[in-house]
Design a protein that fits this description.
Blueprint lengths: L2 E4 L4 E5 L12 H16 L5 E4 L6 H6 L23
Parallel strand pairs: 2-3
Antiparallel strand pairs: 1-2
């Protein structure tokens, strides 16, 4: 499974790409990523900004389909929310 989160314009996040371990290495992940990318490229204006976060095991698949690493220019980061933190 996989999903795309977008702003309705030009920025898209490919999120939650996952294949059941019992069904990996059968081309399912490649097919899912292909459909997600095609959906974005069909619906978005020219040159959309598409990002994803890749675990080590997923990098070869993503790279084989044209996804490139952005480091050291930029790195992925995450925010761990604490319930009591207030700004």
């Amino acid at each position: 499974m996989g999903r795309v989160i977008g702003d309705g314009g030009c920025c898209f996040l490919i999120a939650d790409m996952e294949t059941n371990p019992d069904h990996q290495r059968q081309g399912i992940g490649r097919a899912i990523l292909h459909e997600l990318l095609n959906g974005i490229l069909t619906a978005a204006p020219d040159d959309p900004y598409i990002v994803l976060t890749a675990d080590a095991s997923g990098r070869p698949l993503y790279q084989s389909m044209g996804v490139v690493e952005t480091a050291p220019r930029s790195i992925g980061m995450s925010y761990v929310a604490e319930r009591k933190r207030k700004y």
